[in-house]
């Protein structure tokens, strides 16, 4: 028995080299995840209870408790609630306008029309670009001097086109059009991938029952695509909540284009250097963002348990 035990200890499926490689493969990503993501999240949470300006050590004089949160929720800081409203508008626009457009394009391209590969490439191309680059492109499109949109309006007889990014009543909607340009292509590719794996016999059965194309999609295709629908809803929600690049490129997230993400940057990395106050906004945004993520994970775990 003792010899058998020594043999069991001596022989293993994994060598020392395998264990070292596995440890590095797991340990390095885990280290960066804990330090860069969760470490900064914990640091932001702790800094949100201070009035630290980012320079020098944190002393007892910098501890302000819940004062930062009181300023946010009581309206003392005038940009917080408009930013929340703008994030909600951003979410609603992407969810109820851009996302249905992406689904519609996926359904049309799924019919194998002539040149479908070209159309897919054209519509997906903005997804490859970063939102910062998209912001620069649409700045040129909306330019008051030589922009394409204003040139078209002038050609149609409008001698005084609007200031798309300078007018606080228009710049949010102009930015949403630019964000949708990218989001539509992203949703289209996701939904098109789901449609390609859809069982064609279900469509044939619906046609035999006399269902129209619209009825087939609403009552057959859309319910079967439920997993893709859930993923699209979660992605759209996260995209709307973390929107930053586009608004910051346009005008720094000011003048009617305030978002929670731009408030964090403008308070933490600006002339005011209110790192503690910016961290409080970051914590609020984190709590809001965790909602759809947790809901998605709970739904996924329940489906796997079934």
Note the topology.
Blueprint lengths: L1 H9 L5 H32 L19 H7 L6 H30 L6 H13 L2 H11 L6 H8 L15 H26 L3 H9 L4 H12 L1 H16 L3 H7 L8 H9 L6 H31 L1
Overall description:
- With 306 residues, the protein is mainly alpha-helical.
- It has 2 domains: 86 residues, no CATH class; 176 residues, MetI-like (MetI-like fold, Orthogonal Bundle), CATH 1.10.3720.10.
- The chain contains 14 helices and no strands.
- The relative contact order is 0.12.
- The model has no long low-confidence stretch (mean pLDDT 86).
Summary?
The protein is mainly α and 306 residues long. Helix content is 72%, strand content 0%. It has two domains: 86 residues, no CATH class; 176 residues, MetI-like (MetI-like fold), CATH 1.10.3720.10.
Which tags fit this structure?
single chain, 306 residues, MetI-like fold, mainly alpha, 2 domains, 14 helices
Helix content: over 70%
Could you say what the CATH topology of the largest domain is called?
MetI-like fold
CATH fourth-tier homologous superfamily of the largest domain: MetI-like
Order of helices and strands: HHHHHHHHHHHHHH
Structural domain tally: 2
User: What is the CATH class name of the largest domain?
Assistant: Mainly Alpha
Biggest sheet details: none
* Level-2 CATH architecture of the largest domain: Orthogonal Bundle
Shape: globular
Radius of gyration from CA coordinates: 26 Å
Regions with little confidence, pLDDT below 50 for 5+ residues = none
Per DSSP, the total helix count is: 14
- The tally of strands reads 0
Global structural class: mainly alpha
Q: How far apart are the termini?
A: 44 Å
**Overall mean pLDDT score?**
86
Q: Report the β-strand fraction as a percent range.
A: under 5%
